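Q: Could you predict the 3D structure of TIR domain-containing protein?
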Amino acid sequence: MSGLANGQLMTRKHKCLTPPTLSATKALKGKKLLDLDVRACTVDIEFIYFITTTCTLLLFMVVTFTYHFLRWQLSYAYYIFLALLFDTKYKNKQAPNQYDAFISYNTHDEPWVIKELVPKLEEEQGFRLCLNHRDFEPGETAFCTRH
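A: Sure. Here are the predicted structure tokens for TIR domain-containing protein:
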């Protein structure tokens, strides 16, 4: 705080450097920390309040504008998101399909289906086919057997 210069008692106070410059920091080199005047290092709280209030108001205006003019698009996007979310959860829980295809045919075409179509699709192509005569239990409806 004090030092002797030319035989006189001299008090030196250094101001806070906001923002610090290279020349000002060199001037403070070797000085005591107690010589720093901290009253000059105040934070401008009014400016912080101004910025916070302005950002809050702008955010509020953008949200209300978006809600007012894009309300239906937002609700549509929300329900699409829910549908995709539900569909993803449902797909993860669902067991793999038992069959790849159901072959519907007339009884007059049954010999051709059994001798030519089924071997071609199941053996050569690797499909799992659901056929009336083979995969349905007698006396039950087709719906009950498949599920």
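Q: Anything worth pointing out?
A: Residues 94 and 106 are 32 Å apart (CA to CA).
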